[in-house]
Amino acid sequence: MNGAGGNDTDVNGAGGNDTGGNDTDGNDTDVNGAGGNGAGGNGAPAKGGQGMWGGRFADATDALVQAFNASIEVDQAMALEDLEGSIAHATMLGEQGIVTPDEATALVAGLRDLVRQVETGELPWSVALEDVHMNLEQRLTEQLGPLGGKLHTARSRNDQVATDFRLALRGRTRRLLALLRETRAVLVDVAERHIDVIMPGYTHLQVAQPVRLSHHLLAYVEMLARDQGRFQDALARLDAACPLGAGALAGTGFPIDRHRTAALLGFAEPAANSLDAVSDRDFALEFLAAASIAMMHLSRLSEELIVWSSQEFGFVVLPDSHTTGSSIMPQKKNPDVCELIRGKTGRVYGALMGLLTVMKGLPLAYNKDMQEDKQGAFDAAETLAVCLRLTADMLPRIEVRAERTRHAAGRAFSNATDLADYLARKGLPFREAHEAVGRLVALALDRGVDLQELDLATLREVSSHFEDDVYPALDVETVVDARDSYGGTARRRVEEQLVRARSALAAEAAAAEAAAAEAPTRGEHSP
């Protein structure tokens, strides 16, 4: 056993220096201190109030510093992931002969009992023990005695927390992928049910051309599909490298098998560089970037529902279940769910910008600043999950006022482009056709009528290309179905989009089911 005077003294003294020197918070004297029984008794906090790392310190930690330094209120959310990583680590230690087979069996059994205690809420949490790792290790040592301290052999809290965080975001990512698929499926169902509803399409929030409501909703299916792709890409990179075994920053002198622990935890391989392994938070930034873009999409949809449900538009009626009233104005029906989704988008953006700011000036390897990486990520994950759940629940209950949308689609000269296209098909250069229709729009505005209400004589005053067949071309259904290019709003093209979307969802669901059957679910311990 090395004295507690600088190096990270191993729990049972085996092998001298621990995982590479200084741990997360300085010189980390392991749970049981020197030789197993520890400065504060069997696993009790060391003298001076420094928790479980106090061998080098003579004075007690200031109470405010202790509270400021602790992360247990946030990282206890990773308790099951921490235990999952510890079970893999203990298994590997036994297989490599670093602990005896009996010791490994006892450690794994103790850790599995801690899983039960966490799940049932029996396990107490102490701020004095700083973080989830020390709390769980202390509890294990209370139950197993000095053997519990052997668990930390050949690892540091630095590689431990990096592994836990990856496992935690893996579980949250999988949850979000399932919710994204569900929300897309709901949008497809609602789109199919309203395939004959025609509404105005807008640019600059000005009436542009009529479209099918289903076409509009399917645009959000495409957005959420890209969100799903981003999360899947981020998950692939997250799963590519396991930090466990990287130690504090430089690896370890123990004969560990990092490929074994990586495989046990469902990673493709160990992280190739120990410095990068403990200091990388790209996986969290990617997660937050994907979450931010997904929230932006939900916010845009929410904004449209807010506008469409207003008295001025009156296109939809939002369900009572997802709206609220006013404490003073009894007639009010407020789109609070949509407004909160729109507002909480900024919250998720803030988490992304916060972590980018934390990471931007950090030297390698671990720095205490990185303790600020989890709270925003976990909050963003929960915020996006709730917003997806609310959106998926609300959409099928919305009442669409089809007559109103169709009336609005036929107003504001939404068929002007079709009138120009008509002239172009008659042989007039499109730019001349555009100018001619512009003159007709001005004339119709002056008379207070729509284009289709202008008589043929008036039309021919502007262009001799107009004939009797012009009026059917201006009918709103004709205008919509004339947009027959691939991806357009014509009925048959929308039907193609519906088939494409359903096929994609079915393929994804089958792939997810196959993946779940092939390998046990790991790292899905988010609340």
Please describe what this structure looks like.
The structure is a single chain. The protein is 55% helix and 3% strand. It is mainly alpha-helical and 527 residues long. α10 (282-308) runs parallel beside α12. It is elongated, with a radius of gyration of 31 Å.
Describe the secondary-structure layout.
Elements: H1 63-69, H2 72-75, H3 79-95, H4 101-120, H5 132-144, H6 157-193, E1 198-203, E2 206-212, H7 213-238, H8 258-264, H9 274-279, H10 282-308, E3 316-317, H11 336-359, H12 374-394, E4 399-400, H13 402-409, H14 416-425, H15 430-447, H16 456-462, H17 470-473, H18 476-482, H19 491-518
Helix pairs in contact: 3-4, 3-6, 3-8, 4-5, 6-7, 6-12, 6-19, 7-10, 7-19, 10-11, 10-12, 11-12, 14-15
**Strand tally:** 4
> Mean pLDDT across all residues, rounded?
88
Sequence stretches where pLDDT stays below 50 over 5 or more residues = 1-48, 521-527
Oligomer: single chain
Anisotropy-based shape: elongated
What descriptive keywords fit this protein?
single chain; 527 residues; mainly alpha; two-stranded antiparallel sheet; two-stranded antiparallel ribbon; disordered C terminus
